[in-house]
């Protein structure tokens, strides 16, 4: 609620209160959101290497709360805002001073530091509460991330409906004070549960462990790898058990890294000789990178929700009787769609697919992500068609140059918002579960941070594309595709470009996922659950119900 209470309507605050243009404000939003989603990789590193997930989350939450408090002050005190302006073209209004911008952006980026420690660790702490060696708990864990995302977007629904309405119609002070108070309450609830949590101790620097493998492999560049993997260097299972960790068996992928665990002479330096388990941990983190890259484009699409999609809404009729809908409230339909789809997916879709696939998850995580990518392509095709129709109506009613309201209901944008929620139910839930599940045991926070990093990079790509396309399309005397006056712009072309980009990305994803090798489970719980499904199917065939 706190994060989306700020991000959902931030572009309107930047344009109406800080008097920034469309491209500038959209880029400032995506740059900030990009940073928000990039810092978790640092928080994950601190958690896995030094402080542990619990203390990293607790300290980061305090930083998060201080950022929210400062942001509330920044939107409340008249001395921290430029004078009000009612010009149609906000670029003609007085600009915010250096001090005003410093306080406002200082608060925003304090939030980014706080989220660096909260986002990769709280979901990991939740998943850590399930025992992988207990089949029943493992079964519950398979549903955990569905309900995790359900909980997140339940808070998002409040932000996108109630909070943005308060910000638009009551005031920004109350609109920011409420999520600040909500954040304080949530931190208190988390701390109250401390005695009941299962805590995982930090296992040392993830990046150092991976660097040792890569350096050792490079130093033994010319050393041949034995044909029998049992000749590679490895510790006994008992040694791992004493440390509360697990031994990982050798896999035939990324064979070059196997050189790191080839025994050559008496040099047993950790930068010269690594165990098979260390090598396999590094392999697993590297194997996920092509999948990570394939999620950059859909993350770029998600950045449009709180930027261009919202700006489109400001050009349309937002009235239902005497009630005026805040443009950012349309994002609530993304949330509602996701909430409904997550429930349908977990309660019905999984059970139906289990009958055919005998997979406890219904379908694989990569298959679920692939469905989400297909929907993302469809979203941009629909968004382009809708925008083309909006521009056609604008021309027919002569409101192109004036930038006046187009006589169309804001609800013509609903399909792209609803489908975005459906895509999230497949892609975003599968993504966070995939990177958590496929990461080695002592690198779970880093693995989870992959899922946030892709959102960060997606926002930076969005900023880059927006600036580049805006600049390139203005060359040779052309007006350009993206202007402050959206009625003169060509967002339909821009969205069509995104549709092509999504289609090419879908092909890339299909290619890399075909060669992906899933991590070997540390327990046989999944096998037990799969066996139960097969036995249940056989039982139903032999003894059909009357």
Task: Please describe what this structure looks like.
This is Solute carrier family 15. By secondary structure, this protein is mainly alpha-helical. The chain has helices at 2-7, 10-16, 22-38, 40-76, 98-128, 135-169, 172-192, 206-219, 237-242, 276-287, 289-294, 296-302, 308-313, 331-357, 365-396, 414-438, 444-472, 491-514, 525-542; strands spanning 316-317, 319-320, 323-324, 406-409. The protein has three domains: 1-203, MFS general substrate transporter like domains (Growth Hormone, Chain: A, Up-down Bundle), CATH 1.20.1250.20; 206-274, no CATH class; 285-518, Growth Hormone, Chain: A (Up-down Bundle), CATH 1.20.1250. The chain is built from 19 helices and four strands. Strands 1-4 form a two-stranded parallel sheet. The protein has a two-stranded antiparallel sheet with strand order 2-3. A hairpin with a 2-residue loop joins strand 2 (319-320) and strand 3. The protein is globular, with a radius of gyration of 26 Å.
């Amino acid at each position: 609620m706190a994060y989306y209470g700020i991000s959902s309507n931030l572009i309107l605050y930047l344009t109406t209160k800080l008097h920034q243009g469309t491209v500038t404000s959209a880029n400032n939003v995506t740059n900030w959101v990009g940073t928000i989603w990039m810092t978790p990789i640092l928080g994950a590193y601190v958690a896995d290497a030094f402080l542990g997930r619990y203390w990293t989350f607790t300290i980061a939450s305090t930083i998060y709360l201080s950022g929210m408090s400062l942001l509330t002050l920044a939107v409340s005190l008249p001395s921290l805002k430029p004078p009000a302006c009612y010009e149609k073209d906000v670029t003609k209004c007085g600009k915010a001073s250096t001090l005003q911008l410093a306080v406002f952006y200082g608060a925003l980026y304090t939030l980014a530091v706080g989220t660096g420690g909260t986002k990769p660790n709280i979901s990991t702490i939740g998943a850590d509460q399930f025992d992988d060696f207990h089949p029943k708990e493992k079964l519950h864990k398979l549903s955990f991330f569905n309900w995790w995302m359900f909980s997140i977007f339940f808070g998002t629904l409040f932000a996108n409906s109630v909070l943005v309405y308060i910000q638009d119609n009551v005031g920004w002070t109350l609109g920011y004070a409420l999520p600040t108070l909500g954040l304080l309450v949530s931190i208190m609830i988390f701390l109250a549960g401390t005695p009941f949590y299962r805590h995982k101790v930090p296992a040392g620097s993830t990046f150092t462990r991976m660097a040792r493998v890569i350096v050792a492999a490079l130093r033994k560049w010319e050393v041949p790898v034995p044909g029998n993997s049992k000749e590679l260097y490895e510790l006994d299972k008992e040694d791992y058990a004493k440390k509360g960790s697990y031994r990982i068996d050798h896999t035939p992928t990324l064979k070059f890294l196997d050189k790191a665990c080839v025994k050559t002479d008496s040099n047993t330096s950790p930068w010269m000789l690594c165990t098979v388990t260390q090598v396999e941990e590094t392999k697993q983190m590297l194997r996920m990178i092509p999948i990570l890259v394939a999620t950059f484009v859909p993350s770029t699409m998600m950045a449009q929700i709180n930027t261009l999609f919202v700006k489109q809404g400001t050009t349309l009729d937002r009235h239902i009787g005497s009630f005026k809908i805040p443009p950012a409230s349309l994002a609530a339909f993304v949330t509602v769609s996701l909430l409904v789809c997550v429930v349908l997916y977990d309660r019905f879709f999984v059970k139906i697919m289990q009958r055919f696939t005998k997979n406890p998850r219904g379908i694989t995580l990569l298959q679920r992500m692939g469905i989400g990518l297909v929907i993302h392509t469809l979203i941009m095709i629909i968004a382009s068609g809708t925008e083309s129709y909006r521009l056609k109506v604008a021309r027919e009613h002569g409101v192109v140059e004036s930038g006046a309201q187009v006589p169309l209901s804001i609800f013509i944008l609903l399909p792209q918002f609803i489908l975005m929620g459906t895509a999230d139910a497949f892609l975003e839930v599968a993504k966070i579960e995939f990177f958590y599940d496929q990461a080695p045991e002592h690198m779970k926070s880093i693995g989870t941070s992959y899922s946030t990093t892709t959102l960060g990079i997606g926002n930076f790509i969005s900023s880059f594309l927006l600036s580049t396309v805006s600049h390139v399309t203005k060359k040779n005397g052309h007006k350009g595709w993206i202007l402050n006056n959206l009625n003169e712009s060509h967002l339909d072309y821009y969205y069509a470009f995104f549709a092509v980009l999504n289609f090419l990305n879908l092909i890339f994803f299909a290619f890399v996922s075909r060669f992906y090798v899933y991590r070997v489970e540390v327990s046989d719980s999944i096998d037990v659950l799969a066996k139960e499904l097969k036995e249940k199917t056989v039982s139903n065939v032999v003894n059909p119900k009357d």
